[in-house]
Amino acid sequence: MNALHRLARSWHRLPAWLRVVLVFGAARVVTTLMMLWFAAHQQANPWTGPQPGYTAFASIWDGRWYQIVAAGGYPSELPRTEDGFVSENAWAFMPVYPAVVRLVMTVTFLPWDIAAVVVSVLCGFGAALVFHRLMREVLAPSTAMFAVVLFAVAPTSPILQVAYAESLYFLLLGVALLLVLRHRYLTALPVIAVMALTRPSGLAFALFLLLHLGHRQWCRARHPFPVGEAVRLCVAGLWAAVMGFAWPVIAWIVTGSMTAYTDTELAWRSSYIGHGELVPFSSWFEGADWWMLHWFGLPGGAWVLLPLLVVVALGLLSGPARRLGVDLRLWVVAYLVYLLAVFFPQSSTFRLLAPAFPILGAFAVPRSRVYRIAAVAVSLALQWCWLAVCWRVDGYDWTPP
To answer: Transmembrane ranges (predicted)?
Structure first.
């Protein structure tokens, strides 16, 4: 027992940043071992031969689309199916991450798969460090550190070490949220711009800033809200909205089709419900109906979706969630509203929910040692399940992560 106490004291004497790095690094080792096991049992597939190496296995699925962008950019003419609809193409994947990887490839002469994994892992470490700073704004030091543990072992955390843009996006999102919490709105402008061209997020962040503005106005009697700050916040909100539309406008200019980006995104849901137009807030109800019929042969998916939304709302109002303060919960609300507006729930749903990661701070609040050990164990078990169901390729697989 004395040895454990000495070890605990030594751990707490380490700088906080080093503890974050060690926690995140240890989690990546565990995830790497899991992925190596799946790679060793992986059969030949459209991206690799049998039993691929780690970096090849980490570059499948959307990683190949990012590689296409890094190598050749975007098509000026949209590819179409035999019946005339826009088919899946590179416009669905934003340019910042493949551009960063291409720069690393140019400087280091590394091949795509290695350079992409290096960029993702380094950005993942950066995201963990920023997440810790974000949690320290609202939580006690020990709770903030356990929130980092949950971030590092989360069920979808393998995405932080594969050829996907999430690591870079989480890093930028964490910085943007931290700047908003500190009311440094103009400083956030370049971060918002790059973030909005890394993953679709500009409109969600604009909605968050609108909610943040409303909250500051509501509380201005208790917490001063000078006119200058209000103006700077409005500028940031308008900038986020502009950047939210920037990529669709760029796709329109290059291809000549006003709906090039949305048509491209809709192509990914055509294997579920066929081709159609984007109708805001309809996709989740269509998806709920599709999944209920597909899995249970029953109609009425909305009756499952609506109670789920009620549970989420109650969770955001719970005591542990309130410990995060208003602003981080407003981001979670804004992002979930954005997903409800534009996203069709499919196999990538769990990954696309990950930008709500500030909510992990609420799960870190309970101090019971048994609870914390169980939380880590359950997260690692779900991580294994996510890799088994979503990442490995099992024959003809239409469920990209």
So the answer is: 20-40, 109-131, 138-156, 188-210, 230-254, 291-316, 328-344, 373-394
